[in-house]
Specification:
Number of helices: 8
Strand order of the largest sheet: 2-3-5-6
Order of helices and strands: EHHEEHHEHHEEHH
Shape: elongated
Oligomer: single chain
Helix content: 55-70%
Length: 452
């Protein structure tokens, strides 16, 4: 049956950046590309990444000397009473201009750790963006697969309704001729009504699934153009990647995002520690003051100063100490959350691997069940025609056939959906994709930060 192709795991196989193309569906490729262009959540994640990077770059300027240029023109009036004298006051203009330079010496690394924390926050946003994109692409693929499954179930249900309607018509003709009892007609009528009752639920699921697909594409429900795929047209990938555990923790975006959260928490401890230590600063200013602008920078108008400062917190009521203890507790929380994320990642992969392994068996069993139900229905109908069985037996066979056919369609779709889920669980190959996020690659073990 469609979707029954054999699959095998390949240890260490890399994942393509556009893994969805392995299904060999032009419709999937086009709709995934549209979702990546238009989905607002992706745009929001990209904006958050830009903001985080710019914030880190802005803070990096604190490690360099700060210089500023000032100039002003002032008209002043001075009263002689300031000097204990009487008489009219004097008025004059004062022109000033100066260049001031200041430099805070980051002796104990507080600013550097703050910058490190902001860089970690930016990296966290980068991996959040990768996770958002991976989730979006997977959602588009699985929603299209669900769409194909629901359409196949609706088509199968309509075929069954058509067959049962024809069978009901034959029974009514036979009843008119006195060949069958009214109970047989009523049983078939009831069975047909039950089959029809299941159709609206499937149509509702299909409509809601289409609305969800439009949302992933960044469209309104009214903008549905009817794009769809067929289960029979999808190519099930034959070779599936199987990452080593050490690779998995370096390529899952959620794990890497949690890792950057831990790195930022480590940096905050350094900032809190530096706040408890002395701060050193140097400053200098050079300028000119004159009674008129054209006299500025004359020999007698120079004004300058040099200064060095040091400050040391002496008593803060325990604020700095407890702030540092709070950052240590936050780091411990981030470390525990990182371990939890790693455990969930391995659970997710293990679940997907088991699902892929059992899906093939499930589809084979459902296909065999459908063939058996088809044979049983044919035999039951032939026996009923010759008087060898009751119509209740035929109805039971019809219901078994209906259930087997729908279950086979669901099993076909599940193989494709679980294959897509496996690619997502393994990280989606984002490190092999060329896009707006530079340095998009998993780290080596040597690059993974450790707790300090």
């Amino acid at each position: 049956v469609a979707g029954g192709r054999a699959q095998r795991f390949v240890n260490g196989r890399d994942i393509p950046g556009e893994w969805w193309k392995l299904f060999r569906s032009r419709t999937i490729d086009e709709l995934v590309a549209e979702a990546l262009r238009n989905h607002p959540d992706l745009e929001a994640a990209e904006a958050a990444l830009r903001a985080a990077r710019e914030t880190a770059l802005a803070e990096g300027g604190s490690l360099l000397p700060q210089a500023s240029l000032t100039g002003n023109e002032t008209r002043m009036g001075v009263s002689p009473a300031q000097n204990g004298m009487r008489g009219p006051g004097s008025m004059f203009d004062l022109s000033k201009t100066s260049v001031a330079v200041s430099y805070d010496l980051d002796v104990f690394g507080g600013e550097r750790r703050k910058i490190e924390g902001l860089e970690a926050a930016a990296e966290n946003q980068r991996f959040q963006l990768e996770a958002t994109q991976l989730t979006l692409t997977t959602d588009v693929v699985t929603t299209l697969i669900a769409d194909a499954s629901l359409r196949a179930q609706i088509a199968a249900t309509r075929d069954i309704i058509r067959t049962e309607t024809e069978q009901l018509g034959l029974l009514r003709k036979q009843f008119d001729l006195g060949a069958v009892a009214m109970t047989d007609v009523l049983l078939q009528d009831s069975n047909l009504a039950q089959t029809k009752a299941g159709l609206p639920a499937l149509e509702k699921q299909l409509a809601q699934n289409r609305n969800q697909l439009m949302a992933y594409l960044g469209r309104l429900p009214s903008q549905d153009k009817g794009e769809q795929v067929s289960l029979g047209d999808l190519r099930l990938p034959g070779e599936l990647p199987l990452s080593l555990p050490s690779s998995l923790v370096r390529q899952r975006p959620d794990v890497l995002a949690a890792e950057e959260t831990l790195r930022r928490a480590n940096a905050q401890i350094g900032v809190a520690t530096a706040n408890m230590l002395p701060k050193l600063s140097l400053s200098a200013a050079f300028g000119s003051q004159a009674l008129s602008p054209h006299e500025l920078f004359g020999a007698q108008t120079a004004a300058w100063n040099l200064a060095a400062g040091v400050s040391q917190p002496l008593f803060q009521g325990g604020t700095l100490l407890h702030t540092r203890e709070a950052t240590i507790a936050t780091r411990d929380q981030a470390a525990a959350q990182y371990r939890s994320t790693v455990i969930k990642a391995f659970q997710n992969v293990a679940d997907c691997l088991r699902a892929v392994q059992t899906d093939a068996k499930a589809l084979a069993a459902q296909a065999e069940a459908e063939r058996a139900a088809t044979r049983s229905l044919e035999i039951s109908r032939n026996q009923y025609k010759t008087g060898g069985t009751t119509w209740t037996t035929v109805l039971t066979a019809e219901q078994a056939y209906q259930n087997a056919r729908i279950a086979r369609v669901k099993a076909q779709a599940q193989r494709h959906a679980d294959t897509a889920a496996l690619f997502q669980a393994l990280g989606g190959g984002w490190w092999n994709r060329i896009d707006e996020t530079p340095a998009a690659r998993p780290r080596t073990i040597a690059e993974v930060p450790t707790a300090r």
